[in-house]
């Protein structure tokens, strides 16, 4: 009888041994390269007597940040970096929402039966996506935004919106921050309500009406919180006087140009992704919807787009990540996002390596958060059992 040990192949032919050996070799190689580069960096920094610590984060910033009225140059560097993070987040996530909405209309417009709409959308897409984004942002800033009326004689719309080359002032609310916390809780409750209605519909077959129920829960809880807290917020309207505008909220001209550039450029790519995803859905699905007498809107809403979403989401994730990283092009027009503030911090004589490392970490966190959210959504969109 042959022993069981004799049935095993020798180590140099064993698949498990070869796999483990290959992975071990790869890890050792990567670890050696990382050790070599870090040692080289440490030696060069030591030879040039360059600081590598993090003490500079507590040092005064020594520069002002446009748009941050409460920030003073005597405040520490870490507060300036937080403002840069906030500005990057504001333009990035607003751009993602606007580019997604505009891209949806562009993608569907490319498939329109109307010749004029189809050609107009095609001309826009082929033009914008073939212009370098930096050139587009500079053009929007210098040729459009800075050509708006002077602050002395701004354009006032319906006595509620003030438009000038310094920015746009919009109506806004001011009041207790606790109320906005309650609004956030109401939004969370609305999301939970929508999920509950979806699960109930899957179990019973009853129409979910999740949007209606979720919106109703949000409105009810927000209004109830407003009155229970004794009207904690009030509406403020911008009032123009000479060279100043009081009240409302100001949208900086740099922010406006950057947001427009990122939205228009990214939407041109998203539109093509959506068009291709819709065309990738088998035509038999649309034909089956037609036999059920569904309208064109319901056919697209309930049959085509849900299936196209499974195809387009990974590609949309790449565009969202590109939009966040492309926001760093704001250095060309002076918008104080994280890259611009990091550059100013280094110009004050602070160490460059820790600054760049922090900048890389910030963008990595932004990208990982977006990837995590889209991956969760991607799992929700998969077919049951896949």
Description:
- A hairpin with a 2-residue loop joins β2 and β3.
- The longest helix is centred in the first third of the chain and has 33 residues, at 15-47.
- Strands 1-2-3-8 form a four-stranded antiparallel β-sheet.
- Among the domains are: 8-47; 77-133 and 253-381, Orthogonal Bundle (MetI-like fold).
- It has helices at 15-47, 77-109, 115-128, 133-144, 177-204, 210-228, 253-280, 283-291, 296-326, 338-347, 352-381; strands at 155-157, 161-164, 167-170, 172-175, 233-236, 239-241, 244-246, 249-252.
- It has eleven helices and eight strands.
- The two termini are 45 Å apart.
- The chain has 386 residues and is an alpha+beta fold.
- The model has no long low-confidence stretch (mean pLDDT 86).
- The radius of gyration is 27 Å and the shape is globular.
List the helices and strands and how they pair.
Elements (H helix, E strand, L loop, with lengths): L14 H33 L29 H33 L5 H14 L4 H12 L10 E3 L3 E4 L2 E4 L1 E4 L1 H28 L5 H19 L4 E4 L2 E3 L2 E3 L2 E4 H28 L2 H9 L4 H31 L11 H10 L4 H30 L5
Antiparallel strand pairs: 1-2, 2-3, 3-8, 4-5, 6-7
């Amino acid at each position: 009888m042959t022993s069981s040990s004799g049935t095993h192949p020798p180590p140099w032919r064993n698949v498990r041994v070869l796999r483990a050996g290959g992975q071990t070799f790869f890890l050792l190689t990567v670890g050696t390269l990382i050790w070599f580069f870090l040692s080289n960096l440490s030696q060069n920094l030591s030879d040039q007597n360059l600081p590598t610590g993090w003490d500079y984060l507590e040092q005064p910033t020594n520069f002002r940040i446009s748009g941050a009225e409460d920030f003073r140059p005597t405040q520490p560097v870490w507060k300036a970096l937080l403002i840069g993070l906030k500005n990057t987040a504001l333009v990035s996530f607003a751009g993602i929402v606007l580019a997604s909405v505009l891209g949806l209309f562009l993608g569907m417009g490319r498939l329109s039966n109307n010749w004029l709409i189809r050609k107009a959308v095609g001309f826009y897409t082929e033009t914008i996506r073939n212009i370098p984004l930096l050139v587009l942002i500079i053009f929007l800033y210098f040729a459009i935004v800075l050509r708006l009326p002077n602050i002395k004689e701004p354009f006032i719309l319906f006595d509620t919106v003030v438009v000038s080359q310094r920015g746009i002032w919009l109506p806004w609310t001011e009041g207790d921050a606790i109320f906005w916390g309650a609004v956030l809780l109401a939004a969370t409750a609305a999301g939970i309500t929508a999920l509950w209605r979806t699960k109930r519909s899957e179990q019973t077959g009853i129409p979910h009406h999740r949007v209606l129920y979720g919106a109703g829960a949000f409105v009810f809880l927000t209004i109830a919180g407003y009155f229970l807290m004794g009207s904690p917020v009030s509406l403020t309207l911008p009032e123009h006087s000479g060279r100043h505008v009081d009240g409302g909220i100001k949208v900086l001209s740099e922010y406006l140009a950057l947001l427009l550039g990122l939205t228009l450029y990214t939407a041109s790519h998203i539109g093509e992704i959506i068009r291709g995803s819709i065309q990738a859905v088998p035509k038999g699905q649309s034909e089956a919807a037609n036999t059920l007498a569904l309208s064109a809107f319901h056919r697209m809403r309930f049959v085509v787009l849900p299936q196209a979403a499974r195809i387009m989401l990974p590609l949309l994730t790449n565009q969202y990540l590109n939009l966040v990283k492309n926001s760093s092009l704001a250095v060309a027009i002076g918008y104080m996002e994280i890259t611009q503030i990091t550059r100013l911090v280094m110009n004050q004589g602070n160490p460059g390596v820790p600054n760049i490392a922090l900048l890389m970490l910030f963008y990595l966190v932004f990208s990982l958060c977006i990837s995590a959210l889209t991956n969760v959504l991607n799992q929700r969109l998969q077919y049951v059992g896949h």
